[in-house]
Amino acid sequence: xxxxxxxxxxxxxxxxxxxxxxxxxxxxxxxxxxxxxxxxxxxxxxxxxxxxxxxxxxxxxxxxxxxxxxxxxxxxxxxxxxxxxxxxxxxxxxxxxxxxxxxxxxxxxxxxxxxxxxxxxxxxxxxxxxxxxxxxxxxxxxxxxxxxxxxxxxxxxxxxxxxxxxxxxxxxxxxxxxxxxxxxxxxxxxxxxxxxxxxxxxxxxxxxxxxxxxxxxxxxxxxxxxxxxxxxxxxxxxxxxxxxxxxxxxxxxxx
Length: 255
Known about the structure:
Layout: H1 4-17, H2 23-27, H3 29-41, H4 43-55, H5 64-84, H6 89-105, H7 115-126, H8 134-145, H9 159-174, H10 178-192, H11 196-213, H12 220-254
Helix pairs in contact: 1-10, 1-12, 3-5, 4-6, 5-6, 5-9, 6-8, 6-9, 7-8, 8-9, 9-12, 10-12, 11-12
């Protein structure tokens, strides 16, 4: 049976479709395509994706689809930022692999308290069987530990480690834009199933968190594109809030 949240999600997706695509996807299309190509041709990423599929639970809207999207766009950011540093093509390609590993694993313990720390510990054990150096595994694990917003950030003393960490963070926070209203919120709601009144009561707090995230992007590209993701998300959220009150809350009160 169709639930009220199913109907709200449909309206949310209609609203999202009426807003412009973030500039990142147009202006950095080449980097995104290159990241996707590297992801698809990597046997190690393919193997890791299989493992993640077996372990990653989707109850909080941070399942495989989210992990793959974060991995892809984190790889794109590494390609963009790597050219600024500058790094050799071979080195950049290696860092793309590392950040894609981090992206696939960053929410592997999403349902647990202190999930970033526990996810990093899981990743450290898992990656021992992959052809990665101890330094590369450490960089991946630090990136996973550092991906949460509004938490104390671990300072990283190597430029490559910082690159991987910052690109993972920014790609993850891009999801706080339109994706928040097409998928993430509704997958969380599907698991928690709160009364509509509770959902409405917490809505303004969630919007304030979106506003706060704008100032936290870490890479140059993230600082360039990230705020627009959030601004679009905020505009979508405000329109959806109006629609929920007018089309869903008021009819319930009249009944």
